[in-house]
Amino acid sequence: MPSTYSPEVVLIRWIDSASEVGTAWNDLKVALRALKNSEYPHDMMCETAGFVLWENDQAIAITLSMTHHECGPYILIPKVAILSKTPLHAEETYD
Q1: Would the pLDDT of 91 be above 70?
Q2: How far apart are CA 8 and CA 23, in angstroms?
């Protein structure tokens, strides 16, 4: 990290991945009926706001909390899942 770090604050709208809860095999007809009745992508829409900790062409890492020398837990979101990225306002600079 550079000696002075001014993190970008963003709101990311993205589509999450999903799977059936449990580890058992599913009856194919039951699984297809459940998928047909789902409200994809609306039931998998997510919004995450926070500091951009790291970003490249394939993914972005967002953390909710930062100090001058530490960050809180972060989420790594693949760029292919992102619907929009909106800059928010932040004034803090970390030395």
Answers
A1: no
A2: 39
